[in-house]
Amino acid sequence: MRTLWMALCALARLWPGAQAGCAEAGRCCPGRDPACFARGWRLDRVYGTCFCDQACRLTGDCCFDYDRACPARPCFVGEWSAWSGCADQCKPTIRVRRRSVQQEPQNGGAPCPPLEERAGCLEYSTPQGQNCGHSYVPAFITTSAFNKERTRQATSPHWSTHTEDAGYCMEFKTESLTPHCALENRPLTRWMQYLREGYTVCVDCQPPAMNSVSLRCSGDGLDSDGNQTLHWQAIGNPRCQGTWKKVRRVDQCSCPAVHSFIFI
């Protein structure tokens, strides 16, 4: 059979037009295109109508010179652009970067990779230049019992024990939390079990967690309008975390002990 095939190929060289294929017809077509054909030898060793479309590989009726005349060309893309700015200020949003196609894929070449990437973004200042970062920095909390064990002077010598500012209390309504909070049963982290969705909790802002200049605690959400979702994380188990919304600021916390916490 192989001898017969070689003889036919040799005979074809003496037959004008017998080797017409994709190159001579000047055809290379995407997908399946019944009009993209030529006359010549096919790859399945049959002489007659052969095709120069991309689907001929599947149907087995490509012209003998398809691979040479219509080589697969992969997609080429350019470099990523610089990241855009945040889509908005003072709220969790996105930033974007893009790249363009330098060469479209041809003849079954590798397709183009993603041309756009998005990432989380947050700008901590308003268009007027006012800082709003306190609303979105995750709040780190622990049990209020810890406050009995720390002193201002030992932890933060910048604070005077005679300061007139006694701190403040933030009330939040919990929106969500991870299941890892309820699984805590260690003596010093058992307080996490009392975190529940839909409850109002009190979080005390006291030195040294309180910044000595701004007189604020990081993540206190004081600048939020009450509709913004804020994030918190329990100290002692980083997998115990969740979201809440600000209710109000008060001078003194009045929640039950199991729902009373402090910024840390």
TrEMBL record:
Q: Decide whether keyword Disulfide bond is in the record.
A: yes
> Which terms are listed as keywords in the entry?
Disulfide bond, Glycoprotein, Signal
Q: Which InterPro entries has this protein been placed in? A: SBSPO, SBSPON_C, Somatomedin_B-like_dom_sf, Somatomedin_B_dom, TSP1_rpt, TSP1_rpt_sf, TSP1_spondin_dom
Q: Does the entry feature the keyword Lipoprotein, yes or no?
A: no
Question: Which intervals hold domain SMB?
Answer: 24-75
The organism's place on the tree of life at top rank? Eukaryota
Which interval of the chain is the signal sequence?
1-20
Question: What Pfam families does the database record attribute to this sequence?
Answer: SBSPON_C (PF25031), TSP1_spondin (PF19028)
Protein name (database record): Somatomedin B and thrombospondin type 1 domain containing
Task: State the organism named in the record.
Answer: Rhinopithecus bieti (Black snub-nosed monkey)
